Amino acid sequence: xxxxxxxxxxxxxxxxxxxxxxxxxxxxxxxxxxxxxxxxxxxxxxxxxxxxxxxxxxxxxxxxxxxxxxxxxxxx
Length: 76
Prior knowledge:
Layout: H1 30-43, E1 52-61, E2 67-75
Antiparallel strand pairs: 1-2
């Protein structure tokens, strides 16, 4: 993501986006998926509240050897 605002114009950051369809999912290399999963796990406390109670992550190996991460959101 490249920011285009008045104060941080041009700053670059990486964003994890949750997609509802695995066809649009990022396909991670096995040696990089753990850090992304750990980062997401540490941030879920900011996404819980109200009806959202918790999240669970699952690695799913693809035919090409890469991994997609399935995220399950638990709600009440």
